[in-house]
Amino acid sequence: MIPAVMYAIPAFVLLVAVEALSYRFRPDDGERGYDARDTVTSMSMGAGSQVVGFPWKAFAVVAYAGLYTLAPWQLSPASAWTWVLLFFADDLAYYWFHRLHHRIRMLWASHVVHHSSRYFNLSTALRQSWTPMSTLPFWLPLALLGIPPWMILLQQSISLVYQFFLHTERVGTLWRPIELVFNTPSHHRVHHGSNSAYLDRNYGGILIVWDRLFRTFEAEGERVVYGLTKNISTYNPVRVAFHEYAALWRDVRAADRWRDRMGYLLGPPGWAPRARERV
């Protein structure tokens, strides 16, 4: 099964080009715009993620199908209520997937790729992980609810297409009711900020209501500084893809206690063991 999002790739590339040209003809000194090397890296990461993700999607289909057959009921795709349930269940699953990938370092090692650019434009949306294996558990409950696997994959693609358009500085704030309910470029700029006030905020996919409900929402205020709290100085896609895994492995190897090793793996990014008191 070809993921639906792959059909949107030509449009993504075209829109990246259009946005890049918009900076050339209508520059804005307050916006970072594009950098050629950064954009090539982002698009290389996107291409690599599709190559790796294709066989992984096949495995995911098998997993979803297995649980779907075990579900106490199978919901009909002909029912509008099945689609309503899918929309909210998928978006909630994405929220927790996203939040935990920021709060658990072994998951962050995969997701950090998406935050590694110091620019924020449509090409940044394409800077995706080459290790998507940690995504599967968050959507398995949807199959157990009796939602057909093809519907789950389709809604995941719809969410990804929506989120592509969030990665831009060319759109300010939208009509207040939209900003209240939906994830918007303004909300997502906050999410990509390395400012202390913006760290670990605005995890939503299509909706921002989960962040408001679970108290992880932050409105855009001070100017956003994009990137990581400790940025990497490379445009090499392989290093971008695996640099945090390498750093995590070094920390785990250097630890001399199992509790510290588990802390590095399961603690938040930046976790370090407390210095032991000398007797």
What can you see in these coordinates?
By secondary structure, the protein is mainly alpha-helical. The protein has one domain (4-266). Helix content is 55%, strand content 0%. Helix 3 packs across helix 4, helix 4 packs antiparallel against helix 10 (237-254) and helix 10 (237-254) packs antiparallel against helix 11. It starts with 8 loop residues before the first helix and ends in a 13-residue tail after the last helix. The mean pLDDT is 94.
CA radius of gyration: 20 Å
- Mean pLDDT equals 94
- Helical fraction equals 40-55%
Alpha-carbon distance between the termini? 62 Å
Question: What's the SSE blueprint?
Answer:
Layout lengths: L8 H17 L10 H35 L9 H24 L1 H7 L24 H9 L4 H16 L11 H6 L3 H7 L17 H5 L23 H18 L3 H9 L13
Structure keywords:
11 helices; globular; Sterol_desaturase/TMEM195; mainly alpha; Fatty_acid_hydroxylase; glyceryl-ether monooxygenase activity; 279 residues
Short description:
By secondary structure, the chain is mainly alpha-helical. The chain is 55% helix and 0% strand.
